[in-house]
């Protein structure tokens, strides 16, 4: 199984066996990590699943939609590697993907 590395807000790293076909948000949620609220359930209508993607993997991601970009603009913690984890489909091509959960707005 491909690995997903999640850095919690306190700096703790967790290595997850990521399930292909699920979003990064779904993998994090299914692992019992409650720092991602995902209030919209993965419908790209909030920014409560905001993560910072490790720069090494950022270029491997599909480009973000205009909706995702607009939602990220509403967050105070946005940076050059910000993404909504519900919009990143996880699979073998992202094995070793490392994301850091953004601070709450």
Rg from alpha-carbon coordinates: 12 Å
Mean pLDDT: 96
The SSE string, one letter per element, is: EEHEHHEE
Number of strands: 5
| Total individual domains | 1
Q: Write down the overall geometry.
A: globular
The CATH topology is given as Ubiquitin-like (UB roll)
Number of helices: 3
Strand order of the main beta sheet, please? 2-1-5-3-4
Oligomer: single chain
Share of helical residues:
10-25%
Please state the structural category.
Answer: alpha+beta
CATH class: Alpha Beta
CATH superfamily (homologous) name = Beta-grasp domain
Distance between the termini: 33 Å
Q: Give the second-level CATH assignment, the architecture.
A: Roll
Walk me through the structure:
The chain has 105 residues and is an alpha+beta fold. It has a single domain, classed as Beta-grasp domain (Ubiquitin-like (UB roll), Roll), CATH 3.10.20.30. 18% of the residues lie in helices and 21% in strands. A five-stranded mixed β-sheet has the order 2-1-5-3-4. The longest helix is centred in the middle third of the chain and has 8 residues. It is globular. It starts with a strand and ends with a strand. The mean pLDDT is 96.
Topology diagram in text:
Layout: E1 3-7, E2 13-17, H1 24-30, E3 50-53, H2 55-58, H3 66-73, E4 82-84, E5 97-101
Parallel strand pairs: 1-5
Antiparallel strand pairs: 1-2, 3-4, 3-5
């Amino acid at each position: 199984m491909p690995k997903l590395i999640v850095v919690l807000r306190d700096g703790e790293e967790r290595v997850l066996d990521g399930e292909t076909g699920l979003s990064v948000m779904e993998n994090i949620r299914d692992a019992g990590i409650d720092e991602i609220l995902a209030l919209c359930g993965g419908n790209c209508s909030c920014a409560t699943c905001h993560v910072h993607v490790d720069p090494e993997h950022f270029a491997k991601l599909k480009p973000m939609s205009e909706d995702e970009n607009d939602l990220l603009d509403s967050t105070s913690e946005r940076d050059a590697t910000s993404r909504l984890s519900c919009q990143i489909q996880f699979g073998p091509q992202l094995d070793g993907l490392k994301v850091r959960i953004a601070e709450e707005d």
